[in-house]
Amino acid sequence: MGVISVKKIIAAILLITIMAVPAFAKFSSKGAIPGGEPVEYRGLVIRDTGASIVLINRSETQRVTFSGAVSFLVARKEVADFFIEKVTLEPLEQLPLEKLYVKGDAKAAKKAEQLRWTIYTLEKK
């Protein structure tokens, strides 16, 4: 009986590990901002000189005011972040932001497994 229970425990651990992998997918250089509709981002890059990102207003009719922060997570621990000051995006506008100050370990941020967005301002007009 001891062999069967050990096999079940190992199988359960493997199953849990396999199911957890998608939650730690490497972050993408483009995508939607959770809770930030209609604002999306493209071209997220971390360099020694700071972060670069392009914010896009996908709305065809609304002007959007946006501000927020992006945190980089490694093993669910924040290693770096940067702040996006309040900007106004016209309908369908793409706004490149460059040399944003990265607080924390920029080298670790490049290898981050996950992004966490914090939205401070999201006003649609």
Secondary structure layout plus pairing:
Layout: H1 2-20, E1 31-32, E2 39-47, E3 50-57, E4 64-74, E5 77-89, E6 94-100, E7 102-104, H2 106-110, E8 114-124
Antiparallel strand pairs: 1-2, 2-3, 3-6, 4-5, 4-8, 5-7
Question: What does this entry look like structurally?
Answer:
With 125 residues, the chain is of the alpha+beta class. Helix content is 19%, strand content 51%. It contains two helices and eight strands, in the order αβββββββαβ. The chain has helices at residues 2-20, 106-110, and strands at 31-32, 39-47, 50-57, 64-74, 77-89, 94-100, 102-104, 114-124. Strands 1-2-3-6 form a four-stranded antiparallel sheet. Strands 7-5-4-8 form a four-stranded antiparallel sheet. The radius of gyration is 19 Å and the shape is globular. Residues 17-26 have low confidence and may be disordered.
Q: What are the key terms here?
A:
125 residues, 2 helices, 4-stranded antiparallel sheet, 51% strand, alpha+beta
Short structural summary:
The chain is an alpha+beta fold.
Alpha plus pi helix count: 2
Form type: globular
Helix content: 10-25%
Judged by helices, strands and strand pairing, the structural class is alpha+beta
Q: Classify the beta-strand content into a percent band.
A: over 45%
Strand neighbour order, sheet with most strands: 1-2-3-6
Query: Measured on Cα atoms, how large is the radius of gyration?
Result: 19 Å
Distance between the termini: 67 Å
* Unreliable spans: 17-26
Order of helices and strands: HEEEEEEEHE
Let me know the average pLDDT: 85
How many strands appear in the DSSP assignment? 8
Instruction: Characterize the main sheet.
Output: 4 strands, antiparallel
